[in-house]
Amino acid sequence: MNGSNVDIEWQAARDANHDNWNDRVPLHETAYGLDAFDDPNHLSDVVRDDLPVLSRLLPSGSLTGLDLCHLQCHIGTDTISLARAGATVTGVDFSAPALAVAAELASRSGIEATWVETDVLDARTAVSGDFDVVYSSIGTITWLADLDRWATQIVGLLRPGGTFFIRDGHPALYALDEDAPTLTTRYAYFGDGRAQQWDDESTYVGDGTVAHPRTYEWPHPLSEIIGALLRAGLRLIHFDEGRTLPWRFSSRMVEVAGGFAWPEAERNLIPCTYTIVARKD
Fold first, then answer.
1. Which SUPFAM superfamilies does this chain map to (predicted)?
2. pLDDT of 150-168, one tens digit each?
3. Phi, psi of 261, rounded to the nearest 5 degrees
């Protein structure tokens, strides 16, 4: 059953997820609308939403001239958008095909970028240099079993005074039954160390199917996410929750400015995203 809790070793789960994300690359290369990046002013919707919050909380008020590491960058659309906002960017992902698409898109867009193939949990060892900003956004940490190790990578990558930014799907949202006719909890909000097993041939955008449909994710409550960052030594400087998503989590969601949301009568009942900004002193 989709979303059932299973005991599985990290490496086996990681390998299954790796195969699945490699399969997604050609589907997303078509579905992401990469031709839009031929316009030198084009930014991804994700970065267009994130940038005002991030820029406001940077000491300089802008990404211009800053070194930025984008964790779990996939095919690079957000990374390239961050470069267009002024940053010198390094994109990190565990999928070689995804990074190949990212590198080609960057070249086509006239963007200089560094691409590093590695698991995010090994990022500090694999990535050279220190960064003013470490960035992660939308659909990232549910793929990770160990958030303490994740947070340690972030701290290791940041310079003193550096800023970490994440916006992601809210764990309260992920606990909901996406197929129910009302807001109904179905999946665990609090994790117990076991993975959630999913079998889905589709992806969150576009047509086509993947050859490796089985994936594994881990529920992480807000307390675990924030706690991992604090335990690693970061200082929380901003927290917010949002009512919209850049993808349609449920077929009942309606399209609104900035993405998708629950019907208006339910919009204030459940958060869709959270945003955390933290600093390394």
1. S-adenosyl-L-methionine-dependent methyltransferases (SSF53335)
2. 999 999 999 999 999 999 9
3. -150, 165
